[in-house]
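Recall the central idea of this unit: under ordinary conditions, the amino acid sequence of a chain determines the structure it adopts. In this exercise we apply that idea directly, starting from the sequence alone.
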Amino acid sequence: MLPCSMDGFMIFWNEQESAAKDTGGVLPRVVDSVFRQDGSLVRLMGMEDRHEQWEMAVEVAKHMESDTPLLFEAGTGVGKSLAYLIPGIIRAMDEKRPFIVSTHTIALQEQIKNKDLVLVREFFEKHDALRRYAQFKTCLLVGRNNYLCTTRLDELIRSRRDLLPLDDEPDVERIVEWSARTKTGMLSELNPPPKFDVWEWVNADSHLCNSKNCNSDHCFYRKARKELETANVIIVNHSLLFSLLGAGLSPGKDQRGILLHNDFVVLDEAHTVHATATSHFGLGVSSYGFEKQLRMLYNPVRRKGLLKVLGADDSVFEPLEKCFESSKSFFGWLHQNYLSKKSVIRIREPMDYDASLNLCLRKLIERLKLFADEQKEEKRGQQVKDICGRLSEYSGNIDAFLSMAKEDHIHWLERSGRHENIISLKTAPLDVAPYLRKNIFERNTSVTLTSATLTVDGSMTYFQKQTGSESADARTVASPFDYKRQMQILIASDSLDPAHEKSKRLNTQWLADAILWAVRQVEGGSLVLFTGYQDLYATADLIDPILEKMGRPFFCQGRGAGRTELTRRFADAGNGVLLGTDSFWTGVDVPGSALSQVIITRLPFENPDHPIIEAKEEWLKSRGLNPFLHFHLPNAVIKFRQGCGRLIRKKTDTGKLMVLDSRALRKTYGQLFISSLPHSNITSINAKDRV
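Accordingly, the structure predicted from this sequence is:
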């Protein structure tokens, strides 16, 4: 059988039409007939012809058919999703291969699942020659801890009085009631979500949730796994994808595929791949997570826990108590010696700390395994073994961190949490490119990375070096939007230099005044992008009472709702002002007047004090390279382009882009930011004279 059937296409395919472009094999020719100017998408769906979308779709089809990697930058409005979904689904069904689509944001996942795939199915149903593809099956792949396990829920109900305090009782009852009506059993359905401590006892991330105890008729995770086995399109997010790859969960060395055997993959929002992979190919241990496992065994304050349920004696409680003491001593030592003055510190040499914690852990694990084997009920013994497995993983990670076993990793300590009392040990690869090359680009399968921002000054070289994708073909198409008509660009020429410590207070007041002036210039909503929380909160405190008097709804990241909910409220408000930092520079999609203005407070350079950035600088210097030119500047330009891209989401959108950082005008490197703007018709303003 051919990779993709041409049956039915001959009725509107002829040599004269196909001569317009060498589209290669069968799949590209089919895709060409769908997306070209007089193609079936236009004829059957009444969709607007987009030359850029046609060009992308044909290139994606070529590389899917040849199982080769492709990097494709497609400007906002090209319609990237359809350009890879249609060829991907055709190929997945014809070759019976899993087609994985990975995104960075929940918003894009929901768009693909609830809008784009619905549209694709409707198109296939209307197309005589493609109708059979309308039967494609999809599934959403999320971590198993997002699913309710009814077996574990039954176990909790049996023992909840010995496991949880009385004030957790309402959450348990709510989960029980919800379990009888939910179709998916996914945590995201529960609003508000239950307490973490309660969900930890009932989610499917346990060996108790296995094929022996659970089946797809009553277990939501098993049902999801069964759907995964037959799905043609699998939607996942980058975090889970790289977490699974970092844990070694990929096809065997001699098998084709990235995550599943014989799969092929599209990574959308690919500008985030480098950062996401860096965080997930390292290791992490937190004092909270570690002690949480111990408290699941027994919480000495609440006198609750699994060991109480199972009637453990002193032979188990004594080593557990010693682990609590050793843990308090170990993390206290880290705080006192490294984190008393700084919340983040890099570790450069193996740490000289006695092995008492891991010795206690090994003794506890050994005793727990014996105790688990003594249990008459296999299910309850398995619950103990689950915790043993997690404690063993913690032990190995602590050892690896202290000894700096991974020589190519950066090691650092962090202090975090509401009271800054959570201590974390973290590592990340100094150069993630070899990891991505091995796990993504050398798997003998098609992988397409796409985004609106992969190039710097028109070149994809920097992105390719970052991600180990030097062997991949690179293509770009511009946005079809008329940016000169749709977007007004203003750059302040009088901002204070953020590098000078003395100007911080004055700069905050200047920022607040400039933002308030800019907000008054539009009737719709304004998204204000910051590079750090300190400036964001200081500015928020100044403008909040004034915006309230103006009757403008005000939203601030880190105060109240999470990112998704904040964005929804902002979009619903119509004329709100939303202050956001890092995660709001990308993935925010609010078309129409609800987002009429984007205000960029500073050029988005990375914080040079973070251990990862510091180590990258040293690594580049050791190779004779300038860290600013070869790391900070290209990263900032890509992020800047992402921030600008939040404004115009449709051909009917109009709005203002305000840049409140004069370095774009007065610094030599500023020209790189200027040239990355959607058009060159820029107005320089003296913001001080206007506020």
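The chain is about 45% helix and 10% strand.
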